[in-house]
Fold each of these.
Amino acid sequence: MKEELKTKDFATLTVAYNDEKVIGGMLKGIEDLHNLVIISTPWRGEHVAFDKTGEIAKRMGAEVVYKNFTCEKDERNFGMNYLEKKGFKYIFIIDTDEYYTKENIYKMMKYISITEADSYLAKNVKVYWKSWKYYFQYRGGTICIKSNHRIAGKRRINQSLKNIMLPNDIILHHFSYSGIEEDMRIKAKTREYIVLNDEWINKYWMNWKFNDNSFKEIKKTKDISEEVLGRYIKSINLLY
């Protein structure tokens, strides 16, 4: 079953720019699939030099394409078209700082293979805050899309198409707001984020203390997967 799902139906698509601290741990959980990593110069801000993201991704078995884009939508749609031509039916859209357990990847594939939808949304997302020790809960981000569709904006496809939620026991571990100040400010200058800019970092992220829920309801992490935590710690220390 695993081999059939891997070779016939599913691939992953990741867009990246200087994500060497997280991409190794992300790819470690999905190496059974065909992984496409597209590396572009920044969508905004100044490009100085590429870090080891591409080198790490290749070492982890991913297919790496260097091609420059000016927005996330165009970069992802290029990848969707590229993977559709390779014969994949479903594409997991995974950011460099999004981690799944291997168990959850196969849960998703099995669920998708017996349902009929155009895209699948995350119902249970733990977004880590400052470090892995804190998180807030999120739901609704697009996780998987049929390869014959294209993205209208961010991860969204046409709303007239059929979108369904994945089961609650499939957990996405998201490390977007976990890291050091320098990394957060680089993200703010180079990426398309709804809230992430220097003003937001100064107001919410830098001055946050536990029990300050002015941005989100932040909770202490009690149940992070040991597999995910181990991969994350190893990755931020550049051990992949």
Note: The chain has one domain: 2-236.
Amino acid sequence: MTESGQPPLPGWAPKQPQDNQQVEPRPTPAEEPAPFAGDYNATMRLIPVPPPATPPPPVASITTPPQVPGERYIGKYRVRGQLGRGGMGAVYLAEQPGLGREVAIKELIQSADPVALKRFLQEAQVMARTSHPNLVQVHDMELQGNVNYLVMEFIRGRSLREWMNEKPIPPPQAFAVMHGVLQALDYAHRHAIVHRDMKPENVLISDEGMVKVADFGIARLMDDTGVGGTATKTGTTVGTPQYMSPEQVASSKVDGRSDLYSAGIVFYELVAGQPPFTASEADGPFTLMAKHVQAPPRPPSVFQPGLNPELEQVIMRSLAKRPEDRFQTGAEFDEAMSRVADLMCPGWRRSLEPGADLSRMVPTATPAVPIPVTPMGIAMAQSGAGVQSPPHVVYNPTPPVKPVAKKSVSCLSVLGVLAGVIAAATALVVALIH
């Protein structure tokens, strides 16, 4: 203990100063100037600062510039031109101000039919709930006066119909187009959406090689509730007669398998060069619709001799009259088609890409079945007899005629004939001897 009663400090502890000892102040380091302080202060003096009570500017003034006088606007979208006119109204090319994004705006022709308006509104509701790379996306809805407008993704390219009218589509690209269509339909069907108007006009091919299915304007939700349940209960048939399924002709109650039938018609047309059913203008659409219900489709090999039998089988199954006999899902249809496409045109999935080399995707010949090393196989090889190819489908619209049964010959009849021949030969020999 020290004299003050405090315990002694350890050797490592700093010694406390005595009462009469003055403590020298520690030198304070010089303060360094903040970097870029001069530039920052000069910049801040150039920015006007509003008073604290000033309210923030509205979002519309930031995202939507003021409209240019003399130009047409649909809502906040500036119209740049008309793309075309369809069954429900005109389609415009427009630009979304602020973002500079090109959009396609579809209007509804005003009519007294409330069902057309319900279908149009249903298209916006249905498509706004979907997000798939092979579906045209819906961005917005606009109401100007009493006219409804649907703002959609703009696809810079061409429709499948325009492409088909220009020239025949090579097999690799036909497979790639159908792959995108079936992927889009499978996604829509899994979300309880039926297209009801699947045709080449509603398939778009972008300049980048993307397949987009458009125009769900007459689609219907399969649960038959809300707008979807009332928009088709008018007794009228909705769709395009050239691509309508048998159940779509006979009744309005359809499901996703109806779209797969229509997609099969498109596939048939891509492969054969023409649809399976045709009718003249004098016949009218009802004759064409009746063929979908009653007439058997001609195999596509009638128009394309030598067509791959497995490919023909896939197409014919998609065109079955009964929905139960077709592919049940778009994924099942796509899987069957892709399996044949991989054998016929390797690399077909990249055929729509810009600059794709289609010469490397030519159809390959089916490998021949090896002849077994047996006496029969050696004899076939020496005689030059080849292995027969699978039987080819032949179109026969008339029912087969039942062959007439031939009378069988009994054993006794054969013995009697042989006895007669022997007797005649014996008589001839005896006559020659004598």
Note: The chain has 13 helices and eleven strands.
Amino acid sequence: MTIGSGSRGDAQLGHGRGREMTGDMGRARMAWFSLGGIARVLLALAMAGVAVGASPAPGRSAGPATEAIQDTISQMIRLLEDPNLKGPGKAEERRRLLEKTIGNRFSYAEMAKRSLGDHWRGLTDPEREEFVALFQRLLSKTYARTIEGYAGEQVQYLGERVAEDFAEVRTKIVSAKVQIPVDYRLLLMAGDWRGYDIVVDGVSLVRNYRGQFSRILRSSSYAELLEHLRKKAASDQGADGSRRTGGERS
């Protein structure tokens, strides 16, 4: 089914976790998201290891949405542990495969549409395609800096909530110093659960970007927003014009 630019899925699943954060901690969380929330969250989970990543909390059986997230994480773990992808010159290939795996689970189009909000309705199809492509680059540009950045985290699958064709999978990343709740919001699309938002410690990726985009649109124009995204995408180019991070779009 087609979802409008609003947040019907969020309303059905509840807004209790989507609070705004203020102060230094809030700014730190927002900066964390601005560097590519999907890559950081999923790679943190992947680095936790197969045994932990596949285990639901005691007494809870994994539902279809949870199994979808677990399957994606398992695929990423296999890529990260593949000895054929660890040799010299293999980093870019591994990044491309990781990005494809994430893209197969998360709908960048749905995330971009929800992040742009009501402004999405006024765009033509070519404009929407351009915005989705730029938004995907914005999310994936820090893959290279995060692939090797996690070790020792443990993951607990806490359960899932389903409302019609929406689901929320609740997890928690646990290390010696912190415990961070991470919720995945998914939409049933063509019989498969596709992610459209990630909520880390109460901060929604989509809501965060919607706020950033709305501020730009209120103070300038959609053209200025596109230029802002293009500059960020251009900063991801090497001197020879090749991409430094993120690989190719999946």
Note: The beta strands are 154-163, 166-174, 179-189, 192-200, 203-204.
